[in-house]
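DM from R.C. (forwarded with permission)

"hey, sorry to bug you on a friday — could you get me a structure for this? deadline for the figure draft is monday and I only need the backbone to look sensible"
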Amino acid sequence: GAPLVAVIGHDLWQSRFEGDSAVIGRTVRLTGAPSTIVGVMPAGFAFPRTQEFWVPLRIDVSGDDRRQGMAIQIFGRLAPGASLEQARTELTNLGRSAAVDFPHTHQHLRPQLFTFAESVRAISGPGESMMLLTGNIYVIMLLVLVCANVGLLMFARAATRQTEIVVRSALGASRRRIVMQLFAEALVLGGVAAVVGLTAAGWGVRWGLDLMRAELTDGSGNLPFWVDGKLSPLTFVYTTLLTLLAAAIAGVLPGLKITRNLGNRLKRTTAGAGGTQFGGMWTALIVLQLAVTMGFPVATFFVRKDAVRLETQPLPFPVDQYLSVRLDMERFPTEPGADTSAAAFQARYVAAAQKLETRLESEPGVAGVVFAQHLPRQYHPNYEIEVDEGAVAPHDERGHLVGSSRVDPKYLDVLGVSMLSGRWFNTSEASPDARVAVVNKAFVDRVMGRKNPIGRRIRYVRRSDPESQPWFEIIGVAPDVGIRSGWGPAGIYHPLVRASMYPLKAAIHVRGDPKVFAPRLRAIATDVDVTLRLTDLMPLKDVVNGEVNFHAFWVKLTTIVSAMILVFSLVSIYAVMSFAVSRRTREIGVRVALGGSPWRIVTAVFAHPLRQLGMGLLAGTLLVWALLGGVDNGPPTAAQLLTLGAYTTLMTVVYLIAC
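My reply, with the result:
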């Protein structure tokens, strides 16, 4: 019952009110209702993420049933001297007490406490965990390669100086002094590398944040106000420690190996017997880096393949004639004293959506409107399902995973698509009690082994209580119209019950350019209900653009990293060969003097490196084949063998050039 008031952000004050000092007391319309500005926040404040104005939280639970009502977020501030773990313990105890006091509603509820950043962006499922793990493995493999290459280069560099080091030792230089000199040289190189690395890291962070800003679905171009793209002091401390460690590894370890038994080494060197040699560990590192260097570009292949699949996914309707939008609504009505219960909100939402649909269908520039849980080309969540009979064996223990969506009965009509077999939903089946489903062609191919599914029954799997899930009868087979899930295009459709679905998504068939019609759509929505909010408004063909751009980012990143690794490998191979040849210069001269042919001498010099090269190429070929899935997908095809052979031949030529 209190007057409506608002606090605005500093940027909004500057952009919309030109920094007017008399802004306090002015009236603005927020979600359709007049509100009085009572304050301006300082610059840089946008809590909790990128908010530009704030209004008092008004909750009236008197009209809500149990377990219904508005969803809220709770923020807290730790008491002075309190730790996060102490707060977690206290909240856990409160949760246990509530479970005892209110067993019907709180028995199975357990409160959880997160840091603020974790609450905004937490690892929320196995898919994100797998992405994080994959990224970490990718970085670890890169670090292993870099370390192996640097180790080879530094060892070769130190080994080529063994004569100098032996002479220094003979003139009285201690082993400690020689090792410290090598450490100092490595430290200078490491310091230069640290500066270059920090510069590249700062540029990379800014590049990544700019990409995220460009792909924000709300179109604001703003990341959370507390995201800072600058490198933290901890990063500089970490880099310093890493530089010292790298200098110790690259300078001290080779120095200790070179300076071992200097007296005997002096005799061997002056006698022409060579000197320090690469042992088994270095051979293993060379083989490892060759194998992984071959495998790295395959990651680029996979990322690019996914991007091409997204861009070229065939659809049986003119996708460029459709506009997609997500329909949201403010939770609070503008009329004073209106019902704010969850049931009242859903009723207002359904009525506004129906009115918007009616208005749009009367527009001369609109050929049709349809609502759905997920639209074509949008991501459809995965669900594990089972079929009563006739399904093929699943690929793994996770069973059959398919996408799912609830759609209006006129879904295919608006898209202009015909059924392949069976029938589509009728209007009477758009009810909570309907137990029917339509599957797409990809479902028939993958789950049913191309056998007729009509009449079969399916249900969603809940492993904790499998018998609690209802069975649905398959009544028809639809074409593949853009279901996208983590496990392919196989999917299931169910009739949409608008009264139980929020938010709805709409596909609007436009006569003309969808982008041109977008402002008209916003005007109609505002006229229908000022509390309606249109988000993710874009042509349907652009739905995957964000993911395509993300894939393009990873293609660039993996290409750059692969090129760097290839260059590192070539440089290290060149260094190893140079070291091997220089170490055997006296032997080669003797062979020439004794009449040895150039071909025989080259063969003798190349014998050991070529064995390493052969082992590395073999290991790399097997790694590439495993990554491409050849082991699990039956006998290799001629095209696969040809492609793999061409790739191996190309890498062989590159490595031979380095040798």
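R.C.: lifesaver. Residues 271-276 have pLDDT under 50 and may be disordered.
me: no worries. The longest strand covers residues 33-40.
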